[in-house]
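Troubleshooting log. The previous run stalled partway through. Resubmitting the same two chains, unchanged.
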Amino acid sequence: MQRRAQAAGQVLAVQWQFASQGRSLAGAALAGARRFVEWAHYPREDHVDSASGARFFYHSHSADQRPAGEHGHFHVFVPTPGEPEAISHLIAISLDAKGLPVALFTTNRWVTGEAWRDACTLGALLPAFSLDARGRLAPVARWLSGMVALYEDVILALLHERDRRLGGDPAAFENRSLHVLSQARIDLPQRLQSIEAPHHSTREVTDVACV
Amino acid sequence: MTPARRIKTVCASALVVAMGGVSAAPAPTPAQPTQAAASAASNPCAAKGRKAANPCGAARKRSANPCGPANPCGAKRKPKTGEGG
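Second attempt completed without errors. Output:
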């Protein structure tokens, strides 16, 4: 609970910092670019934390493939311990144009071309997840680190739901009709308020046991 | 001040109010093929003899892994002896 409270403070501090300046976190995610071009990565070569190996980028799909109300989304990746070149997609975080997170989602393997790891393996990495950056992306990285900790239970549930949808069928990894495998709408202000209520949860934690 | 108390001080509802004054980020615009080609041709890394930013090619990459990380081939590259940490 303490860890989640710290994460809430971290997320709120960054969100507040931008909001009090009238700036959108979604704008900050563009890493200084004036134009936001569909499919382009922001930053262009992604940001990679040299210490943890975690990486992220922000982008948008074309208008016909973009959910209503979504400005763009972050894709967050983690490396495999001992094999840093093999990276896996941890979670995607959708923002609205004002920079409030509106949804979390997972994707099929073909979408990111990732090194696939199951929910239990990825879930074990969640408590130690950290993303650091210097310069203009520093607050964005802090916000992402905080979001992963703040929504750890939801992310874990989404990863398990992702695996259930694929049903252990390797052929499903390349099934182009399966793109987003699990998603959850989120309400950040509500989540922040829930930190004060010890027994409140916005979503049931998955019932799948990891061994 | 503990994180929980800080949350109370700058409470979530205040954030909602503050968000009302936030300017929307620039809306996504469609990529123009001519611009993409020009950008690739002037890739400064390629000009210096380094591997191009996206050696697999943007168009191919998009159809194969539309949300894949940048430099997917580079990410799988094994570091050379004495390179990196």
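Takeaways: The two ends of chain A are 23 Å apart (CA to CA). The helical segments of chain A are 2-20, 25-28, 109-112, 119-125, 138-150, 152-166, 188-194.
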